[in-house]
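User: I'll paste a sequence; please echo it back and then give the predicted structure.

Assistant: Echoing your sequence first, then the prediction.
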Amino acid sequence: MQMDFVNGAGLGLRRGLLGALQDCSAGEVDFLELAPENWIGVGGRLGKQLRALSERLPLLCHGLSLNLGGFAPLDIELLKAIKGFLDLHGVRGYSEHLSACADHGQLYDLMPLPFSEESVLRIAERVRIVQDVLERPLIIENVSAYAQLPGELDEAAFVRAVLDEADCQLLLDVNNVFVNSINFNFAAPAYIAAMPSARIAYLHVAGHYDEAHDLKIDTHGAPVIDPVWALLEQAYAVHGVRPTLLERDFNFPPIAELYAEVAQIRQLQTAAAPLRSYGT
């Protein structure tokens, strides 16, 4: 099943924003993104509000619990439930984290993976299974991390290898690149430039927490900072303008402040478009 993808600047749909978003328009938000695990089977008032939004605005889904990097068998029943949700709401694209989250029990953190050739082959096979069940392409996201496991590849090379081996697309999370560049002391612009343009489906930006000068925590609970905006601008310059989503998970400000950040994404897209558009 292939559908038209999204364009422009979007916002993550959280239950804490559901009421405020009922009055949003395409002039303020071009698309929304949600975690299907948080909405499958939800009915009543919340279900009606979600349905009203999905009928007015394009919707993407960003999963939380597939455990692509784990060793436990993939949860086929969960995948079938996700497929039903994607079909029901006409979801334009589905992404998941390039991480592990469940082997001996469900974790509520995204655990790092060994950056190894063995991991590449194993994860690529799991991606192919997911795509077969969902009857859709899978988009994988680079994740933030606070520890590194042994492996012969660096992070950028590992991500590229998985994309190539699995023949899938990338959700490039610009804030995660920035966070990891501080935590593991690498050059964020070089990482951005190393990603394969043809595989980038869309982008994320978000805020984070400064635990220390050399430790950033990817919280999605604060405004986007200037260095992350600069990385987003670089991503457009190198790879062309892509749909870009603002993530905010808690500490919600007035909705107008989130719309202003979405508008900042759109301004960067407009400024970059004459210089380099996708496919040029």
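The longest strand covers residues 200-206. The chain is about 40% helix and 20% strand.
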